[in-house]
Design a protein that fits this description.
Keywords: Glycoprotein, Membrane, Metal-binding, Sodium, Symport, Transmembrane, Transmembrane helix, Transport
Order of helices and strands: EEHHHHHHHHHHHHHHHHHHHHHEEHHHHE
Organism: Lates calcarifer
Pfam families: SNF
GO biological process, one term: sodium ion transmembrane transport
CATH topology of the largest domain: Amino acid/polyamine transporter I
Strand order of the largest sheet: 1-2-5
Subcellular location: Membrane
CATH architecture of the largest domain: Up-down Bundle
Largest sheet: 3 strands, antiparallel
Low-confidence stretches: 1-56, 631-640, 663-709
CATH superfamily of the largest domain: Amino acid/polyamine transporter I
Structural class: mainly alpha
Length: 709
C-alpha cells in the first residue's frame, strides 16, 4: 500500500496498535469557522476550513509579551555590542561603517531573524524539531546548531568578569615599565597566562571557582525553563541599559569625551569601497542577532500561535542596532577622555625633555615661540614647538626622542575584543572619581550581558532536546551545565585564553554561517517561499510585505554565499595562529599554531558540521527516523486536520468537509483499531508522522472491520 496519512502505527508492548485519521479526528472538537489559523503545509491560495491550534497543548508559555521581548533582547544583545561593534566601527571608517552595517541589517538581519521567529512560533518546537519538520533530510541543521551552541557556551567569557570585580577593589594597579598597568593586570594577574599555547601551566584556581559560580547562576536561571529564565530577564536585560545611560551621561561630562565621539563618527568614505568592510559588517549583523544558535527559535516556540512575530523581529533588531550605537557612544566618550589624559601626560613628559635640552644647550632658546609658557603648556603650544624643532633639527631630530603627542594617535590605539572591553576601559576608569564604583557598575553590566547570552544559548540547547526526547528537564539542565563546566576547564588553564581565541575563530564562524544558509534554503527553496508566506498570513492575519519573498528567496542566500566564500578565502590566506603574551617583552606577539593545535582547529569545524551530511545520508537511505514522531500529539493532530496533508481517498476528508453539525461528537468513544488479540486502547503518544513529515513514516494497512472497544 502506498504511504499516506490514512493511518498511524506504533509498536507498544509487542502489540501493533493502529488508528485511522478519521477516528482520531472524531474525538476532536467541532470545526471553528470564525477564525483562520495555522495552515501548516497547505498550498498557497487553497481555501479550506481551518482549525485553531490548541493553545493548551502542555507547552510552557511566556507570562507576558514584555517578558518575551526582554528574553530576545537579552539573548541578542551581548558582549559583542559593547566591544566588537565599536572596534569594527573605528577600524572600518567610523561613521562610514554604519552605512553598510545598516543596509545589511535590512537585507540579511531582519529577514532571517523574522524567518527564525516565524518557524519557531509556527511549529512550536526547538531547532531540532523545527528543521526535522521543514525538511527531514536537512534535520542535521538543528543538530549542527546544537554542536555549535555547546562549543560556544563552553567558552563564553562571563566567568572572567567575576574575578575582575574581585581585583578591581584591590589597591592601585602596579607601575609597569614595558606595558600599561591594565595590560599587565589582565595577562599576568587575571589570566596569569603562559607564553605559548603548548604550555598548559595548570588550572588557575580563582578562575576555576569563578567558572563554577557562573554555571551555578546559569543553571538556577534555566532549570525551570522559561518559568525561571523569564523572570531573570527582567533584570539581566534592563540593567545594562541603566548602566550604559549612566556611563553616557558621566562620560559626556569628562574632558575629551567629545573628541572621542567626533573621532568615532567622522566618516572615512573611501572605506566603503573595500570588500573587507562589507564582509565584517555582514558578520557582525549575523552574530549580533544570534542567528543560527537556536535561541531565537527556542524562545519564539513558547509564543502564542497568532503572535505578531514580524513586529517582534523589527523591534528586537532595531533595539539591537541602537544598543550598539549607544555602547559605541559610551565607549568612545570614555576612550576620548582616556586619550586626552594620555596626550596631556605625553605633552608634560616631552616638555620636560625639551627643558632639559634647553638647559644643556642642546637646543637653542630661539626655537621656543615667545608665547609658550612651560608652566601652563597646552597641546596646541606643544604641537607648534614640536613642529619648529623638527624643522630646524631635521638631521638630528630623531636623536632627541620627542613624541608628537597627537590626540588622533591615542584614539587610534583602541584595540579589539577583550582589549577594548577590559584593558582600555579599565585603564580609563582608573581616572574616574570614585573609580571602584564605576568599575563595578561596568563589569556588573558585562556580567548581565554575558549571562543573558548564556541563558539564551542554554535554552537553545535544552529546548530542542527536551522537545525531541523524553528526559527530565531538571536533570538534563544540570547535566548540560556540568558538561559545559567541565569543557570550560580547558579555558581556565593558564593557556586558556589562547583556546578561547581558537574556539571563537573556528568553532562558530564557518559552521554557523553554513547552518544559517541551510536554514534559509530549506525554508525558501525546499519548503517553498509562497507556501511559507501563506502560513505567515494564516498565523498573523495579514500577508507580510512582498519584499520578504525576494529577500528570502534570492537576496539573503546570495549574500550568505558571498559571506561563506569570503570567510573561506580569509581562512585560506591568513596563517592560523594566535597572539601570545611574551613576558620578557611585556607585549603580544603573533605565533602560528603547532600541528596538534592546527588539527584541533579543523576538528572543531568538522565536528560542528558533521551532522549535516550524516543525517542527510541516513534519511535518504531510510537508515534513521525523520524525527517528526517526536512532535507533540496536539501538533500532529493539527497536521491531520489540514486537508492538504491528506490524500484524496482519505475518509478524514469527509469529516473535514462536513458541516459543523455533522461532525461527530467530541466525546471520546475509545474507538481504536487493534491487532489480533489486542485489547489496549490507542495511546495518543503512539502517533507516527504522516506523509507530510518525510519519506520514512511507518504506515500500516487499514483493518477491514474496525472493532469498537
Amino acid at each position: 500500500m502506498p504511504k499516506n496519512s490514512k493511518v498511524t502505527q506504533r509498536e507498544q508492548s509487542h502489540e501493533h496498535v493502529t488508528e485511522s485519521v478519521a477516528d482520531l479526528l472524531a474525538h476532536e472538537e467541532p470545526l471553528d469557522y470564525k477564525s483562520s489559523s495555522l495552515n501548516v503545509g497547505g498550498a498557497a491560495g487553497k481555501k479550506v476550513p481551518q482549525l485553531e491550534v490548541p493553545e493548551n497543548d502542555g507547552r510552557p508559555a511566556w507570562n507576558s509579551k514584555l517578558q518575551y521581548i526582554l528574553a530576545q533582547v537579552g539573548f541578542s544583545v551581548g558582549l559583542g555590542n559593547v566591544w566588537r561593534f565599536p572596534y569594527l566601527c573605528q577600524k572600518n571608517g567610523g561613521g562610514a561603517y554604519l552605512v553598510p552595517y545598516f543596509i545589511l541589517l535590512l537585507i540579511i538581519g531582519i529577514p532571517l531573524f523574522f524567518l527564525e521567529l516565524a518557524v519557531g512560533q509556527k511549529i512550536r518546537r526547538g531547532s531540532i524539531g523545527v528543521w526535522n519538520y521543514v525538511c527531514p533530510r536537512l534535520g542535521g541543521i538543528g543538530m549542527s546548531s546544537l554542536m555549535v551552541r555547546e562549543a560556544v557556551n563552553s567558552y563564553l567569557i562571563t566567568f572572567f568578569l567575576f574575578f575582575i570585580i574581585y581585583h578591581l577593589y584591590k589597591e592601585q594597579l602596579p607601575e609597569c615599565d614595558k606595558s600599561s598597568a591594565t595590560t599587565y593586570f589582565w595577562y599576568r594577574q587575571t589570566l596569569n597566562t603562559t607564553s605559548t599555547i603548548a604550555e598548559s601551566g595548570g588550572l588557575n584556581v580563582k578562575m576555576t571557582l569563578s567558572l563554577f559560580v557562573a554555571w551555578i547562576i546559569v543553571c538556577l536561571a534555566v532549570i525551570k525553563g522559561i518559568a525561571s529564565s523569564g523572570k531573570v530577564m527582567y533584570f539581566s536585560s534592563l540593567f545594562p541599559y541603566v548602566v550604559l545611560f549612566c556611563f553616557l551621561v558621566r562620560g559626556l561630562m569628562l574632558k575629551g569625551s567629545v573628541d572621542g565621539i567626533a573621532h568615532m563618527f567622522t566618516p572615512k568614505l573611501e572605506k566603503m569601497l573595500e570588500p573587507q568592510v562589507w564582509r565584517e559588517a555582514a558578520t557582525q549583523v549575523f552574530f549580533a542577532l544570534g542567528l543560527g544558535f537556536g535561541g531565537v527559535i527556542a524562545f519564539s516556540s513558547y509564543n502564542k500561535i497568532d503572535n505578531n512575530c514580524h513586529f517582534d523581529a523589527v523591534l528586537v533588531s532595531f533595539i539591537n542596532f541602537f544598543t550598539s550605537i549607544l555602547a559605541t557612544l559610551v565607549v568612545f566618550a570614555v576612550l576620548g577622555f582616556k586619550a586626552n589624559i594620555m596626550n596631556e601626560k605625553c605633552v608634560v613628559e616631552n616638555a620636560e625633555k625639551i627643558l632639559g635640552y634647553l638647559n644643556s644647550n642642546v637646543l637653542s632658546h630661539d626655537l621656543i615661540p615667545p608665547h609658550v609658557n612651560f608652566s601652563h603648556l597646552t597641546t596646541s603650544d606643544y604641537a607648534e614647538m614640536y613642529g619648529v624643532i623638527k624643522t630646524v633639527k631635521e638631521g638630528s631630530f630623531s636623536q632627541l626622542g620627542l613624541d608628537p603627542c597627537v590626540l588622533e594617535d591615542e584614539l587610534n590605539k583602541a584595540v579589539q575584543g577583550t582589549g577594548l572591553a577590559f584593558i582600555a576601559f579599565t585603564e580609563a576608569m582608573t581616572h574616574f572619581p570614585a573609580s571602584p564604583f564605576w568599575s563595578v557598575m561596568f563589569f556588573f553590566m558585562l556580567i548581565n550581558l554575558g549571562l543573558g547570552s548564556m541563558i539564551g544559548t542554554m535554552t537553545g540547547i535544552t529546548t530542542p532536546v527536551l522537545d525531541t526526547y523524553k528526559v527530565q528537564k531538571e536533570l538534563f539542565t544540570v547535566g548540560c551545565c556540568i558538561v559545559a563546566f567541565l569543557c570550560g576547564l580547558l579555558f581556565v588553564q593558564r593557556s586558556g585564553n589562547y583556546f578561547v581565541t581558537m574556539f571563537d575563530d573556528y568553532s562558530a564562524g564557518l559552521p554557523l554561517t553554513v547552518v544559517v544558509i541551510l536554514e534559509n534554503v530549506s525554508v525558501a527553496w525546499i519548503y517553498g517561499t509562497k507556501r511559507f508566506m501563506q502560513d505567515l498570513e494564516d498565523m498573523l492575519g495579514f500577508r507580510p510585505y512582498m519584499i520578504y519573498f525576494y529577500l528570502w528567496k534570492y537576496v539573503s542566500p546570495l549574500c550568505l554565499i558571498v559571506l561563506i566564500s569570503a570567510t573561506v578565502i580569509e581562512m585560506a590566506i591568513s596563517p592560523p595562529g594566535y597572539n601570545a603574551w611574551v613576558q620578557e617583552l611585556a607585549q603580544e606577539r603573533f605565533q602560528s599554531y603547532p600541528p596538534w593545535a592546527l588539527a584541533m582547529c579543523f576538528a572543531l569545524i568538522i565536528v560542528a558540521m558533521l551532522p549535516l551530511p550524516v543525517v542527510f545520508i541516513a534519511r535518504h537511505f531510510n537508515l534513521m527516523s525523520d524525527g517528526s514522531n517526536k512532535l507533540s500529539v496536539s501538533y500532529r493532530k493539527t497536521m491531520m486536520k489540514d486537508m492538504s496533508n491528506l490524500e484524496e481517498q482519505d475518509e478524514a476528508r469527509s469529516i473535514l468537509g462536513a458541516k459543523p453539525g455533522e461532525v461527530p461528537s467530541s466525546v471520546p468513544t475509545r474507538k481504536a483499531y487493534l491487532t489480533p488479540g489486542g485489547n489496549k486502547p490507542l495511546d495518543p503518544n503512539s502517533l507516527s508522522p504522516n506523509s507530510c513529515y518525510g519519506s520514512s513514516a511507518d504506515i500500516a494497512p487499514t483493518p477491514p472491520n474496525p472493532t469498537t472497544v
